[in-house]
Design a protein that fits this description.
mainly beta, Lipocalin, 2 helices, 9 strands, about 10% helix, about 35% strand
Length: about 180
């Protein structure tokens, strides 16, 4: 979904937050794809049809020898003990100056933009958006994100014309996101 981020992240269906007349968001200056590779946990997202009922969502990216990226998005349906749902896809860089603009496909020939618009210095969190702000994911290397870090991300998103009120928190193991197992 990365992924790249989440289950079924093809960017083909409607989403929240689309803003006409607002310039596309800026992407981060550079992404080291080898550092970006690995597993990311979804902390929050804009609601979308292809992730309905998903909790414990994660995306795993693997850089291939040809420079492309294999994507595995997984979630559990409705509860942390629910059935695992997964989808595999491929992604590739469309802006090799930054490596921050990618295309992802889960069902060829359909593709969607995957823009990395915020990234922690140590690659501890990432924010993935869409050029028209239709989709948004906040990701972390761990299932739980520190609230101070999360609030900082939300403030930067607001400054960049994202409606953070549309975000829904993703229930994750270990009590994430709220520390007590509640989905808020």
């Amino acid at each position: 979904m990365l992924v790249l981020v989440t289950v079924g992240m093809t960017f083909l269906v409607g989403g929240c937050g689309s803003k006409r007349g607002v310039a596309p968001p800026e992407v981060v200056p550079f992404v080291d794809l080898n550092r970006y590779a690995g597993t990311w946990y979804e902390i929050s997202r804009y609601p979308n049809r292809f992730q309905e009922g998903c909790v414990a969502t994660s995306a795993t990216y693997t850089v291939r020898k040809d420079g492309g990226i294999d994507v595995l998005n997984q979630c559990r349906k409705k509860t942390l003990g629910g059935e695992i749902s997964s989808i595999r896809g491929r992604a590739w860089v469309v802006d090799d100056k930054t490596n921050a603009k990618l295309k992802v496909s889960f069902f060829w020939p359909f593709t969607g933009p995957y823009w990395i618009i915020d990234l922690g210095e140590e690659y501890e969190y990432a924010v993935v958006g869409h050029p028209r702000r239709k989709y948004l994911w906040i990701l972390s290397r761990t299932p739980v994100m520190d609230e101070k870090t999360y609030e900082g991300i939300l403030n930067r998103l607001k400054e960049n014309s994202y409606d953070t009120a549309d975000l829904i928190r993703t229930l994750q193991p270990d009590g994430g996101p709220s520390g007590n197992g509640e989905n808020r």
